Amino acid sequence: EAGVVQSPRYKIIEKKQPVAFWCNPISGHNTLYWYLQNLGQGPELLIRYENEEAVDDSQLPKDRFSAERLKGVDSTLKIQPAELGDSAVYLCASSSNRGGLNEQFFGPGTRLTVL
Amino acid sequence: AQRVTQPEKLLSVFKGAPVELKCNYSYSGSPELFWYVQYSRQRLQLLLRHISRESIKGFTADLNKGETSFHLKKPFAQEEDSAMYYCAPLGATGTYKYIFGTGTRLKVLA
What we know:
- The complex is a heterodimer.
- Helices cover 0% and strands 48% of the residues of chain A.
- By secondary structure, chain A is mainly β.
- Chain A starts with a strand and ends with a strand.
């Protein structure tokens, strides 16, 4: 089992450029999460998907951030245009939520640096 | 407002000493409580959950609803326990929304 896969692992871009992150959750996990983790902070939820539906995107800055999970499997998070303050680690997680276990499995994250 | 407080950013203890990582939460309803851990160069992963009442790697956590606390404890710290620890209440059933604390870095000194 590969676990949650994210790519790229690192990304360096100049401000105002677009950037996209990709996540493939654990097979069979219907719930997918994108988190933002700033230095010295805990992860903060950006968006949660149940299958292909975004059921909680209240924390997603919709003026520049967008996400999709078209077939209810892998997902893409995009920032356009990127700002200096977007430099952070972007984490993807998935869970099955079967049996009430509620455990989330995290990917390795994508470290974004905006210059 | 829902809030999680981990008052210590860094906790250093000597090997073999007891360790307690504090977590206080302010949450509506009855959240489910979790501790997640991130070892150096590894992914964030679940350490334990209060509902299981289990001991994982010698760690236990007691939910105190009166004090709204969920402190993580281990009687004898080991060097391999050095990591970043996050307390994470999970919202009411069906929302599956974690709010992570800011984390405590535990350093176990030889």
